[in-house]
Amino acid sequence: MNKKAFISRISDSFCNGEVSLFLGAGTSIDANFPKWSDLLEPCAEKLGLNISDVSDYFQLAQYFINEYGESELYSLINERINKIDYNSKALDIIVKMGFKSVWTTNFDKVIEKNFENQQININAIHDEKDLSSVNLMNRVNIFKLNGDIGHIDKIVISKSDIENYYLNHELFLSFFQRELMTNTFLFIGYSFKDEIVLKSIQKLNSYIGKNKKAFYAIMLDDSEKDKDFTLFVSDLEKRYNIKVLLVKDSDEIEEILRTIKDKIISKNIFISGSLDNFKDEAKAYEISKAICEKLIDSGYNIVTGFGKNIGYYVSGSSIQKLYSINESNIEKRLIMRPFAHDMSLEEDATYRDNLISNTKFTIVMYGQAIDTDNNTVISNGVLEEVKISEKQNNYIIPIGSTGYAAEKVALNIKDNITNYPYLENYIDKLCTENDPDKIAQLVLHIIREITNNIINQ
């Protein structure tokens, strides 16, 4: 499958439904996680073997256990994994793509740490008993099929562990197979060398019959080192219907992930604004409602940080609209992230940064606040969100006619219009139009034009 078609297929699947991610050891390598060959090289040396001659690492681990015992193997693994640097460029992109379900055979904590670094709540599931917490709201479920390093005596590392997997993890596998059936799966950094995944897909296909479900994988092209690699990839595609995109290095994986992310988040619209002025409230509600209804009808998703009053208008009118169209996935179409009052300045900045990072457009409305002397002022929070949006290359759409911060941003754009060519034909109208429906139509037109002419090129 060529790169453009692959990216388009994954992006469309993500926007139209649920996509689950499956991460293999390859995604932890740029966090200095040792490759299997490096991790188990000391085992091979103690057994008098050359690690380059070993193709089955589970069998190697089994030989080591047979000779030296499990505790010796666990000690060796612990020592090498504790040297990991948890920062990963690929995972930094993945975290911002909005996956709700991540499966992995990795037993390190690199994936969890990268989600936590972005202040995203996770639900790590590495044991059958953890499955009861799968549906926790606003958490990313991370399913660790091979266990967790924090419970090293239960990790899947040896041939015996693999052979007994279906007996010891029956419930885990049933969850995995159910998700294989319902969701589109994207595999990254996974070699398909163990039997767990392929057997599960084979079992699924035996139920489905000829109309096999398609799966997608990004894999490093190893054909120069492995003479069987091309045949192996062909087997994945023909027997398991796994559409494989071969890449030359990790930089290309990151480039592909960024492109997919940009396409996914181009459907996410961040609305920044605040209002503490009674006389403007009715008009602000009408504008918020008109914009949200137009965006939702056109397939866009709303993201709000719950700025004073504007956040309520945006969320309230969005929820009302989503219920009216019987939307089944409301939490995906409307992302609400209220700010805690006791946040430090650093926490506040990080929170705004993470919130905006999942969007491609920023609509600015009003942006008014009351200071400690009870004076009407421009909201610094809204201006900060605009600054973050520009840093993250969002397309800024200020409704200058609403005044305050939005007007200030619009006038700045007007004075520097060469930096905002997408608004050249619209900035005057954004500063003068007062009719809620016409404002909403104008905003939607700008977003569609940018999407068609820039993002989807």
Helix and strand topology:
Layout: H1 3-16, E1 19-23, H2 36-39, H3 41-46, H4 57-68, H5 70-81, H6 89-95, E2 101-104, H7 110-117, E3 122-125, E4 140-144, H8 159-163, H9 165-168, H10 170-182, E5 184-188, H11 195-208, E6 215-220, H12 229-240, E7 242-247, H13 250-265, E8 268-274, H14 281-297, E9 301-304, H15 310-324, H16 330-333, E10 334-336, H17 345-356, E11 361-366, E12 368-370, E13 376-378, H18 380-391, E14 395-398, H19 404-415, H20 427-432, H21 436-455
Parallel strand pairs: 1-2, 1-5, 2-4, 3-4, 5-6, 6-7, 8-9, 8-11, 9-10, 11-14
Antiparallel strand pairs: 12-13
Helix pairs in contact: 1-13, 4-5, 6-13, 10-11, 14-15, 14-21, 17-18
Quickly list its features.
single chain; 457 residues; alpha/beta; Rossmann fold; 7-stranded parallel β-sheet; 5-stranded parallel β-sheet; 14% strand
Mean pLDDT level: 90
Strand content: 5-15%
Quickly count the domains.
2
* First and last CA, distance: 19 Å
Tell me the number of strands: 14
Low-pLDDT stretches? none
Radius of gyration: 25 Å
Query: Order of strands side by side in the largest beta sheet?
Result: 3-4-2-1-5-6-7
Which overall shape is indicated by the principal axes computed on the Cα atoms?
elongated
Q: What is the structural class?
A: alpha/beta
Per DSSP, the total helix count is 21
| CATH class placement of the largest domain | Alpha Beta
The CATH architecture of the largest domain is: 3-Layer(aba) Sandwich
Share in helix: 40-55%
Q: How can the largest sheet be summarized?
A: 7 strands, parallel
CATH topology group of the largest domain = Rossmann fold
Question: What is the CATH superfamily label of the largest domain?
Answer: TPP-binding domain
